[in-house]
What we know:
Elements: E1 50-53, E2 59-63, E3 67-68, E4 81-82, E5 90-92, E6 94-103, E7 115-119, E8 131-132, E9 140-141, H1 145-149, E10 180-185, E11 201-209, E12 219-228, H2 248-266, E13 277-287, E14 296-301, E15 306-311, H3 324-327, E16 337-344, E17 347-349, E18 352-353, E19 358-363, H4 374-383, H5 398-404, E20 416-427, E21 432-442, H6 481-485, E22 488-491, E23 505-507, H7 512-524, E24 538-543, E25 546-551, H8 556-559, H9 564-567, E26 584-594, E27 597-605, E28 610-613, E29 648-651, E30 657-658, E31 664-666, E32 672-674, E33 678-679, E34 700-703, E35 712-720, E36 738-740
Antiparallel strand pairs: 1-2, 2-4, 3-6, 4-5, 6-7, 6-13, 8-10, 9-10, 10-11, 11-12, 12-21, 13-20, 14-15, 15-16, 16-21, 17-18, 19-20, 22-23, 24-25, 25-34, 26-27, 26-35, 28-29, 30-33, 31-32, 35-36
Amino acid sequence: MMRSVFSSALVRAAAAVMLTIGVMAPESAAKPLPGRPIRRGQLNLFASNGLLFEVNRQQCGLQADGQTCVAFAGSPVGGGGFWPKGTPDQYIFNSGLQIAGHVSRTAGFAWAGDTVGAFFMDARGDQFSGSPAPGTGGWYNSLNPADIAAWPNGAVVRNARDSIYSTLVEGAQTISQGDAWARYWEGDPAFSTGRPHPSGLLVDQRALAWNFPSGNEDIIYFVFTFYNITARSTSGLYNNPTIPGPVQAEIASFGDQFQDLNENKFKLDVPDGGYALDSIYAAFTMDADVAVFSQNYTTAWLPFNIGGEYTGTFLPEVGWTFPPSVFGAPFFAGAGFIGVKYLKSPESSPGVQVGLTMFSQTLNSATGFPDPVGVNQLLRYLSGFHGPTDLPCSFSDLAVARLRRLCFLGQGQGDARFFEASGPFNLAPGQATSIVVAYINAAPVAVSGTTPGPTTDVKPMTPFTGDSIFANPGDTIHVRRIDRMAGWVSATDINGNSSIDQDEVTTVPRSLLNKGLVAQDVFDHGFLLPNSPKAPEFYLVPGDGQVTVVWQKSSSEATGDPYFAVASDPTIQLYDPNFRQFDVEGYRVYRGRTSSDLSLVAQFDYAGTSFIDYTAALPYGDFCAPELGVTTSCPVLFDSVPPKVTGNEVDIAGDLIQIPPGGRVKLANGSVLVLAADTAVTGAASGAFPVLENTGVPFAFVDRSVRNSFSYFYTVTAFDVNSFKSGPTSLESPRITKRVTPRGSVPNLTTAELSFGVFGDDNVELDPSPAYPIDAATGRVTGPPPPSGAGALAAAFAPLVPQLLPALNLTFQVDSVKPNSDVACDG
């Protein structure tokens, strides 16, 4: 059963073009419920309306109406989420937000007390409520230079009262390896199927993705900010700490548009002060379709706030591939997991998150627990307060279902969907709140007795809540087979609260649950990940057929990489003992005829720097991989648990090769086969620069391969060398260019003169001429030695002659003075 896939990145066009695209799909690919129409998407002609987000190993189609991981280009059968990128392995058909609540009963006009909501994603396909916010232009992609040039004010990284981002990244346009941003709403009354009228919500969505640290290459982060835009801009209600000051006015403008559109449509007056939305529930819903969609199960890992989907047989579809670097031991080559983790939920009061309050499976079926129809049923589903016409949860007592945070738990394979709801919370007019989730893909952990096959059927059973594992002391039934396959190893109630929390669970590295902990750590530290060095200050000195480039140290040499505070914490998943705090290794000089076309002309790297390996990340022959139990050729006995203090120190020069987690496998003869590796600076993850040679850094370079009267652009960058587990083996500072024109000498040219002297701490010049008195009888020095002559130090500044621009005051400090002998001196 091979589902035809259609996904395409759209390109901007200067004029509208009519396109007709036909996609032939097998009969098994389409998934209509009998008697129910499938909403066929419209083909967008502009890239801003749809985006193929593929920064790391995930591939996710984004549509600017609230649909996430969808075949945005209009295919009625193609999927929207693939992993690993570049394979036909589909894990997501469609996903997105669903929201339901009430208009406040005290709203003071006709809508008071109405049940309202929005299907930004609708598995049925006929109740979509979202559309791009007027005038916002759809998706903006930071990897598109045109989008970066037009980056919206609302897309700048800013904190409101909820403080999602680290202060070190606040104010940046982008913070990941490929941010994307869109703004949409459900305020258009033309999209009111299944609801009496719009709610009055505007949504900002940011997508973030990295290829580091380990595990993060299979995670996409989504930050959703909801605004209650029911009030007019003149109300002043948008001037509050839940909305960053620089965007308050533009958010307020949508309040005017919302009122104008809906007052005209429904012939009523919405109060200028808007209305509160009460008892709101926000949910993520996913129609995952892992491999053969009719063989799917859904389940939750409640201590982790993760809901997910898998195929009960773990069989792939035809054509699926399983790269060994992802699916090698301790995993197996079978269809994996897709999970959605709440990292931040809405707040019932400032600082108090409501968390994941209800998980349930729904079905593409008229029986079992079908997808909700209309916002009234949607609210009943999300809240757990069902009506007499709703089909029952798996628990006969709804109070038990709400307490367990679980509703329908299907135990038969099918076209399963799931939602994970959070609520209730209120949103006053002009107020905003945010939720943050992580989409996570992971391979299944090899568990004895489970292999992919047509007779394999790993049922989800009933998930346990954190405290339910203690219901019967010693009862291990709560830890299900599917928990083990998702990475659960063991758990201990460390804090003594009689409940298992996610940070009390030992997990298999790179498993679904382990990646959930990685995602939580990344979020908890404000999305602060390894930083490139700060760009150094530099100066250009034009000469006759030459340009002298002089630069200062990057400030990062003194401050270090701020991510070190995260990587050095042995209690979190991001712990990396190999991470170097002071990691600046050298500098590069680039030249070009334009600022956008630069070529490397020189590279310098420090001598005497070292890398201390605490994890056997470096290759030590065919019999060293402690994580696989192979240690024969290891140079030291590496520690097996944090904190790791036994390391092997090597010089940073030549080919410094590192192997990432999962980058090697154990062969039948006990040796190790390397599947993935990178060489610092010269490797694929670093950009292929010249090898490190311990050249030393002169902080000056004379470029004699230029011609007079031609303009050139130069830049000097700092680059680092660091651990491959936490990020690329080498990051480089931004390329900030300056322009210069070399020229011949003129008759009235006055060249710079440099004067040298050696001064003490009191700024008095020292005399290098006195003799060095030594007692002839004892051989001991009887006084202080004279200082070195200034002339001996002049060579340090020689590259600045004959021209020096601008004027500089330079100092040269001598430190680390050692006796010129290994024999200890007495006296």
